[in-house]
């Protein structure tokens, strides 16, 4: 009977349905107990993780019989791909399963930051009626810049276009002839990165963390963004210089920002201190791609991939 270890949270009904007949250890707290996790993976055939479990080094050394890793999401920066390939371990991300959740997060957050009216509950309840202080901006007519134009960015573009935004994107890996630049909802302008940064009212990041993208949005890039622009990072921590972003918000150069991902995760009080008292900033705990619906989809796609690998080979 194949042994499957699940070290982070997953839809339990999906585990019961899709991994029936396997020896499953589901313990979403294992990620925070490295010694217990290493002991658990000894003799395991499969390991299912999200983004926090580091599938590399000592953990791979402990998992001598590991055949497959299922990733509850799409980013693979927590998995040592070359080491897995060298050991014959297959890796299956849940491609496409959380695209809609992230796209909705980006568009909803852009609207929230542009409008700026939704933090007034306490003042309204207290009778101050601060209408003049809450004259925000409409999303219609604004320009959305997408750094990266993969599946999630395309879902984001579709929703933004429906709200009247103009769409531009930069992605050197999507050929100029690719039909993605001319979807049914209208042309997506293909731009160089510098031009995209300089001309976008809302800049949303959709790139993996690599040597090339680490620190991509640094102080110089932030300074080139239009005054009052909005930055959203629901891709990977480390792509944005967090201290520089905090300063750009404090100075008033940027109109707002949202970070769902951080250079250090989970974000602790020490790393989070850089964001203290920063205005017009939304911080969320790497949750953009996780909704009730997407959790079921991601869990199902991952469990099915792991089952196929263990039973059909």
CATH topology of the largest domain: Rossmann fold
What does the largest sheet look like? 7 strands, parallel
CATH level 4 superfamily of the largest domain: NAD(P)-binding Rossmann-like Domain
Largest beta sheet: strand ordering: 8-7-6-9-10-11-12
Q: How many domains make up the coordinates? A: 2
What is the C-alpha radius of gyration, as a whole number of Å?
Answer: 21 Å
The proportion of residues in beta strands is 15-25%
Name of the CATH first level of the largest domain:
Alpha Beta
Distance between the first and last residues' Cα? 14 Å
Low-confidence stretches: none
| Secondary-structure-derived class | alpha/beta
CATH architecture of the largest domain: 3-Layer(aba) Sandwich
Silhouette: globular
Q: What is the tally of beta strands? A: 12
